[in-house]
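in:
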């Protein structure tokens, strides 16, 4: 059996973003392992407009070509690590928009998080957990949080993430847990594929009940 494929999703596209620093650090750590295939997935490579589809991707695939490519990439993966900054106590707009453009591609897969910024991006991570629950993604316990101390040390003092070895310890725990869940959930999806959900019928029933 091949090892699971896990995407490290860079959740910022702005010029001068910090995200490239933890992304390179994490992929280097992940690639030392032999129990999974890891790849960086950069939202810059999927320039999706603000969501403007006529119907939810839970019902029909999006028409936008970049969104279709994004969905295909998400479908290829068995698990995810979301790298997210914290904007106004929440997730970046570009990442939320990307999540809105796919649905079945995410179902019944695990996700972990690397957050950075105020309180280690923890509030953004908690927002992501709520969003991912609707996408039938299992969000996991062990994550990495780059707090203001490390963040400012890198930006202002010339430090690197290697100067904070406890972050690598946290990354190891996160990766161990994520790979276990990726293998387990992949086996479950293969053993018992999910039945298609008729969202149109559900929506109509909800409208009638209202």
């Amino acid at each position: 059996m091949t090892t699971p494929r896990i995407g490290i999703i860079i959740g910022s596209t702005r010029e001068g973003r910090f995200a490239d620093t933890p992304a390179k650090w994490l992929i280097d750590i992940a690639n030392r392992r032999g129990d999974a295939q890891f790849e960086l997935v950069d939202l810059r490579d999927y320039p999706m407009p603000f969501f403007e589809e006529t119907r939810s991707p839970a019902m029909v695939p999006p028409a936008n070509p970049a969104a279709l490519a994004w969905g295909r990439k998400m479908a290829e993966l068995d698990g995810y690590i979301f790298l997210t900054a914290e904007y106004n106590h929440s997730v970046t707009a570009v990442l939320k928009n990307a999540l809105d453009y796919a649905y079945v591609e995410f179902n019944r897969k695990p996700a972990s998080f690397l957050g950075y910024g105020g309180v280690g991006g923890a509030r953004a991570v908690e927002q992501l957990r709520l969003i991912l629950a609707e996408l039938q993604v299992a969000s996991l316990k062990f994550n990495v949080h780059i707090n203001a101390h490390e963040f400012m040390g890198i930006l202002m003092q010339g430090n690197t993430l290697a100067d904070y070895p406890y972050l690598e310890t946290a990354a190891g725990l996160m990766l161990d847990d994520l790979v276990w869940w990726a293998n387990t959930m992949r086996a479950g999806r293969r053993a018992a594929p999910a039945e298609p959900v008729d969202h149109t019928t559900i929506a109509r029933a909800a409208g009638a009940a209202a």
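note: Residues 5-209 form a domain with the Rossmann fold fold (CATH 3.40.50.360).
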